[in-house]
Specification:
This is histidine kinase. It is found in: Membrane. Helix 2 packs antiparallel against helix 6, helix 10 runs parallel beside helix 11 and helix 11 packs antiparallel against helix 12. The chain has twelve helices and twelve strands. Helix content is 54%, strand content 16%.
Length: 454
């Protein structure tokens, strides 16, 4: 049993002990109240019996000369019908003994007035008093006023039967309480296991999540725990999203640096340029790498929507990218055509535009045979439109939506990770834009991106 108690959850043990203490204290208080009520009931019974026997008591008082004759009833009362009570008359507020019945005199109870008075001061009126003969008596004090003189009649009866009844009643009450408390403890154990079962279920589900057996907790819980389960699932979802964001950012970083490293190698191998110019071009690539690293780290921390929005010239960024890619794919001698007015601006961050166009142009240069064309236009109704197309093999219609997801590639014959278009799709979505893949008039792929006017 001790081992089981040690294995119980602390919350369950606390609830059980607290409830058991409350039940025990309440039961004891109720038992004491029942005992007091039983004593009062017996006292009321004795008082009613006394009232029923008042004629016999009055006859004894008259026959034994304990009170003046003229206050008693003229109705004759049979002497042989004794009341069964001991009678004592007191005066001066129970301080002085006035007279006693013959039975009380034989027992030597002449000091009863003082005893009753002292116990009455201590207990606010004694029900049971121990007198000179060593016995306990139930006492009822009957006040009388005769010829402007006050008397107190003590009506005494043997309290042995009353005390036995009370003792029996007390034992029965405490036995019932003693049986009720363990039974309540057993009911508490069952109720605690049943009531705390949802908490144990939640604990098991969280443990399964930690072990990787599940990804969220069920929401089939009582009302008190349903909000906890929902909040926990939301926290798990946010944590998963944040972890995925970090993973995507690292993959995007590696994908972006790949092109810059290829451009750096092309610059190092490019013949016919002076060392000073070569160093300047390599330094420019290193600066772009640093910007990409800072951009990807910032995106991993705050997401795309947290980046500062501005207006970036599209022609300038596109020109730099095509210059770099022309060095990477020098052997293909790609003809890059830029139909981009100088005044057309991208309504967003420069790093976002660089990442988006960099991936689109890198794909176009890789698959193009000889030509890559970039269009950009802006009007009040349709907003900004960007189009990148090439004369390569194009993208099959059934793959045009799939290639916008991470890890999906349109051409499995060439090396790649299937990240470029997914990054483009993420950036376009962050600006509430639309992306569409169709066939180009150049017989290759045509990727159209639209941004609505602000």
């Amino acid at each position: 049993m001790k081992r089981l108690l040690r294995q119980r959850p602390r919350l369950q043990r606390r609830l059980m002990l607290t409830s058991l203490v409350i039940i025990t204290l309440t039961s004891l208080a109720l038992a004491e109240a029942l005992n007091q009520q039983k004593a009062k009931d017996l006292h009321v019974t004795q008082t009613n019996d006394l009232l029923a026997r008042l004629p016999s008591i009055a006859a004894e008082l008259r026959l034994e000369g304990m009170l003046p004759q003229h206050i008693l009833t003229d109705t004759p009362v049979p002497v042989q019908d004794e009341s069964g009570y001991l009678l004592i008359t007191c005066t001066n507020n129970l301080r002085d003994h006035y007279s006693s019945s013959e039975a009380a005199k034989r027992l030597g109870l002449q000091d009863s007035c003082e005893r009753v008075r002292q116990l009455g001061q201590q207990n606010n009126g004694p029900d049971v008093v121990s007198l000179a003969d060593g016995k306990s008596y139930s006492v009822v004090v009957v006040p009388l006023t005769i010829n402007q003189q006050e008397f107190e009649i003590l009506v005494l009866s043997d309290a042995e039967d009353v005390q036995q009844q009370l003792a029996t009643s007390y034992r029965q009450t405490y036995v019932r309480v003693g049986l009720f408390i363990p039974l309540s403890g057993l009911l508490l154990v069952g109720a605690s296991f049943w009531g705390l079962r949802p908490l144990r279920q939640l604990s098991d589900e969280v443990r399964n999540i930690i072990k990787g057996k599940s990804s969220k907790v069920s929401e089939d819980y009582p009302v008190e725990l349903s909000n906890v389960a929902s909040a926990l699932n939301e926290l798990l979802s946010k944590e998963k999203h944040q972890r995925q964001t970090y993973q995507d950012a690292m993959k995007d970083l590696a994908h972006s640096l790949k092109t810059r490293l290829a451009a750096t190698n092309a610059i190092m191998d490019e013949p016919g340029i002076e060392q000073k110019e070569r160093n300047q071009q390599m330094l420019a690539q290193l600066n772009q790498m640093d910007q990409i690293i800072q951009y990807q780290l910032r995106r991993a921390m705050v997401g795309r929507q947290g980046l500062t929005r501005e207006h970036t010239p599209i022609h300038e960024v596109t020109d730099k990218l095509t210059t770099m890619l022309s060095k990477v794919y020098m052997e293909k001698r790609i003809n890059a055509q830029l139909n981009i007015p100088e005044e057309v601006m991208f309504p967003g961050n420069r790093d976002d535009l660089m990442e988006m166009l960099g991936n689109l142009l890198e794909n176009a240069y890789r698959f193009a045979i000889s030509t890559v064309v970039v269009h950009a236009s802006l009007n009040e109704h349709d907003g900004l439109t960007l189009i990148v197309e090439d004369d390569g093999p194009g993208i099959e219609p059934e793959l045009r939506q799939a290639v916008l997801q991470r890890g999906v590639r349109a051409d499995r014959r060439n090396p790649g990770q299937g990240i470029g278009l997914a990054v483009v799709n993420d950036i376009v979505s962050s600006y509430q834009g639309d992306i569409e893949i169709t066939d180009s008039e150049l017989e290759g792929a045509k990727i159209k991106i639209s941004f609505k006017s602000a």
